[in-house]
Amino acid sequence: MGATNRYPDEIRRRAIEEVTERGRNASEVARDLGMTQTTVSTWVRQYRRDRGLEPGPTSEQTARIKELEKEVADLRRTNEILKRASAFFAVEADRTRTR
User: Fold this and answer.
1) Distance from CA of residue 67 to its chain's centroid?
2) Residue 16 and residue 44 in contact, taking contact as beta carbons nearer than 8 Å
3) What predicted TM-score, i.e. pTM, was given to this entire model?
4) Helices 26-33 and 9-20 sit at what angle, rounded to 10 degrees?
5) Helices 37-50 and 59-97: crossing angle, nearest 10°?
């Protein structure tokens, strides 16, 4: 589900189940499991998104976006290196022509 594994998957599943299937309040579940309400609410929200029950990106879409952002950053770095190399070789070529 999420990117971080601060809590075991079983705890995550249990918290989601308590809220979505048993109708418990996220703050009660969080208190019982020793975590914040925000954590439980975030898990439940993502669970619902992944099942098309709530608008927003699914876990798969979020992972793909992160992957693409990393790829874009890598391509930008590569492009900058190529620009600098091109400028360097252009200067070198100009020097050899003027000799």
Assistant:
1) 8
2) yes
3) 0.70
4) 150
5) 90
Rounded to whole angstroms, how far apart are CA atoms 15 and 79? 46
> Coil, strand or helix: which one is 62?
helix
What mean pLDDT is predicted for residues 6-28? 97
DSSP annotation of 35: S
Residue carrying the six token digits 């391509």: 75
Alpha-carbon separation of residue 25 from 15, 86, 95 (angstroms): 10, 61, 74
Quick one: pLDDT at residue 99? 65
Token duo for residue 94:
């100009």
Q: What angle do CA 2, 5, 62 make, to 5 degrees?
A: 20
